Amino acid sequence: MECVEGQTRHFEEFAEVLLRCHHLYHPTTDSIALLNAVKSRRQIEIFDYSRSADAFTRAFGIRNSLKCLQALLNLGTAIHTYQKVCDLGCGSGAFSLAFAYLAGNPGLELHGLDSSESQLSLGRQLMSAARLPGRFAFEQRSLPAMIGYLPDLAISSYWFCENKHVIADPELFDLMVGWELLIVDYEEIIDGIATCLPKGFHVLARHSAEVEIPAALTEFVAQEKAKVHSIHISRTMD
Questions:
Q1: Which of 14, 47, 185, 203 could form a disulfide with 189 if both were Cys (CB 3.0 to 4.6 A apart)?
Q2: Tens digit of each residue's pLDDT (9 = 90 or more) over 216-237
């Protein structure tokens, strides 16, 4: 019961953080059209973020942040121990925002990497509006690529579904993983990652859950519940 109440409290508090950013999330004609189009197709989508970054963020940003928060809650108190975190294919910062909120760590160094400058610009605005503790930097980078260091934790939401070739290539996969990697994605993508995990990595945990959208956010999300699937991976210590 205490665990459920704690999760409910986090979602309610996080809703307040998201509402600080309402100007970046409020629906527009373009975002509603994009949301309806995706719902009608019922398939994994590949987006042109250079043209639809704003509409995509308004249509899916809050929902994705709530999914990422649910996945992060599975880390328990360990979330406070990660100092250097890298958000791979960060987009407009949905995962970064959820991590920074839950970690509550002034010493956090979080770097978001993405190829779309339009998305990165939204990410910078988002983190500024959210006013969360930590240091944040958003960098344009074509992934997969060498990060240049091993972060304590790499996080990624819905990047692997658009880059499935990385899952089956051990060398490319190795480039994308810090000491640990937490992925939120479609269930079939999580299945593929678990099945094709290269030598030198192992699964720490895998979770599926249903997120109840806080009432304060239903105007932005346009649904009451959302499914989330995640996998937490670690390098195998020799």
A1: 185
A2: 998 888 888 999 999 999 999 7
The type of residue at 218 is: T
Q: Which two tokens stand for residue 215?
A: 């009432």
Strand 180-185 and strand 135-140: pairing? unpaired
> Can the peptide bond before residue 144 be classed as cis, meaning omega within 30 degrees of 0?
yes
Work out the end-to-end distance of the chain between its first and last CA atoms, rounded to an integer number of angstroms: 39
Q: Quick check: helix, strand or coil at residue 180?
A: strand
Predicted local confidence at residue 1, as pLDDT: 41
Q: How far apart are CA 126 and CA 97, in angstroms?
A: 8
Is there a contact between 130 and 103 (Cβ–Cβ < 8 Å)? no
Q: Are 172 and 148 in contact (CB under 8 A)?
A: no
Range in 159-168, 195-204, 215-224 with the lowest mean pLDDT: 215-224
CB atoms within 10 A of CB 29: 8
Q: How far apart are CA 88 and CA 160, in angstroms?
A: 10
Tally of CA atoms within 13 A in the half-sphere of 131 that contains its CB: 6
Q: Report yes or no: 143 and 88 within 8 Å, Cβ to Cβ.
A: yes
- Give the integer Cα–Cα distance in Å for 65 and 218: 14
